[in-house]
């Protein structure tokens, strides 16, 4: 399979978890390299639903090495909960899961600050997952963070945590928020540290050993291209590099060892949280929500929905170097008479075939649409390309052409088997 980076090509929730699960069959190692438990990756196996937040989705297949890399921000208490939940469902973890000693930690003051800053922003809020992701990456960049390697050394951890709680309680006080109890946080984090210690290792040397062995490595992106801190719709973004470059820095795998970049996208568009979404459309949102679809895997929020935006996905192809596309949720469009695809933006007498950087311009853009006839046929039972209705095939071919990448995978349902290799 070669070494592959898989990224979200839209605003997150493209179905990365499902596609990772499918691709893991041929991988030896699966790595998360950025983000934290703001991610929610859903996988269905034989009707059982699994939602992964920090643990790579590859864990659901036997004997795959799964790595939480240096670029991830880890809430250790939430990771312990996730591991326990997976164990309850019979997932084998021991000997398969590895946690980078240099990954940064998320603390309760990060979560509290995340919430306080959102409240302060009022109607200009980002709509974060309130998992403390922004403040944790903020500490990392400010060189005031704590890492997994600190968590597993009790004396060092205690001393550093004491300082950090003191400092952050001052900040929380300024917000009028309740200060945190050192002893409570210390107790909780020490317990989590003890639980996680067996998983902690130098994941960079581990991954380079795997590279030397010729293992196939799959890098599991979290969030999506337009939530990238550099390439997304700033400030309505997350705080990590969600694009392909982030997978290298966040894992220690050098760029020239990557053979392929896969971009996952829905056959339409969704976004959860605030910020521009040029193709947003109430009709398609109501239809999908009425089907019980498009509610967030992490926060349960209803996702905003819109038509497929080829201006955005072409941009995603460019910044990620996407070779192959995996298009998911095709079955979500089965009942439509007409399907729209955005092929350009119009704003202030100007047309754009790229995503403008000025957030105010992007927010004011009107999409220019091309229309495709619907196929009015259920696609969820299709297993081969030729099982798909001709109109669905034409629609997918058009998306690939407009996006300027090769259509490799078409997904017609949440299950493993509902996958077509094109
Ligand atoms: P991720 O964050 O990119 O892993 O995506 P999420 O798991 O948050 O959201 C994607 C949703 O779509 C999940 O509920 C998946 O089970 C579901 N899903 C993925 N691919 C398909 C598909 O082709 N059809 C349908 N009906 N659901 C899908
Ligand atoms: P997966 O991996 C969709 C969004 C939030 C908010 C913004 C910032 O499941 O695709 P944050 O908590 O990161 O500071 O929030 O980013 N967001 C996601 N949206 N899928 C995700 O992850 C997301 N992770 C963060 O809704 O708009
Ligand atoms: Mg998700």
Describe it for me?
The chain is 34% helix and 21% strand. With 422 residues, the protein is α/β, with parallel strands linked by helices. The strands form 5 sheets. A 10-stranded mixed sheet has the order 9-7-5-2-10-1-11-15-19-20, with helices on both faces. It folds into 2 domains: 312 residues, Adenylosuccinate Synthetase, subunit A, domain 1 (Adenylosuccinate Synthetase, Chain A, domain 1, 3-Layer(aba) Sandwich), CATH 3.40.440; 95 residues, Adenylosuccinate Synthetase, subunit A, domain 2 (Orthogonal Bundle). Strand 19 and strand 20 form a beta hairpin. The model has no long low-confidence stretch (mean pLDDT 97). Bound molecules: guanosine-5'-diphosphate, 6-O-phosphoryl inosine monophosphate and magnesium ion. Magnesium ion (MG) binds next to loops.
Please summarize what this structure is:
With 422 residues, the chain is of the alpha/beta class.
Which characteristics define this entry?
single chain; alpha/beta; Adenylosuccinate Synthetase, Chain A, domain 1; ten-stranded mixed beta sheet; four-stranded mixed beta sheet; 20 strands; binds guanosine-5'-diphosphate; binds magnesium ion
